[in-house]
Amino acid sequence: MKIVKFLLILVCIYTASLQSLIADDAKMKKGLEIFNETAGCAGCHALKAAGAEGNVGPNLDTVDLTIESVVEMVTYGLGVMPAYGEEEILTKEEIEIVSYFVANSAGK
Q: CB-based contacts of 60: which residues, under 8 Å, 6+ apart?
């Protein structure tokens, strides 16, 4: 009986992990779409994961970013970068998703 409970727990953990991976993959795909199309980040930034070769803003392949720092920059802008949140160019959800994508792709 203990073995069955143990195996059931392992199956539950595996299932939860698999669901998380699928959700993360979907979030990365949506983040790529926002980066390249909706927000047009690729026009200014280089980022290999996005196939982006912009040279106006920082090369995101050379920096290590956190999700929180990207959310801050995207929301309020920085230098010539627009404030995508304050100017309501992107929704809060889109900012979270593109920030997740950038933070998990930058510096790689």
A: 45, 46, 47, 52, 102, 105, 106, 107
Q: Which two tokens stand for residue 31?
A: 């983040």
Write the CATH number for 25. 1.10.760.10
Range of the domain at 73: 2-105
CA distances from 11 to 8, 14, 24, 27 (A): 5, 5, 20, 24
Task: Please write the tens of the pLDDT for every residue from 1-50.
Answer: 667 565 556 444 555 444 444 448 899 999 999 999 999 999 999 999 99
Q: Which two tokens stand for residue 39?
A: 């927000």
- Angle, alpha carbons 54-56-57 (nearest 5°): 90
Domain total in the chain = 1
- Whole-model pTM: value is 0.79
Which phi and psi (to 5°) does residue 8 adopt? -65, -40
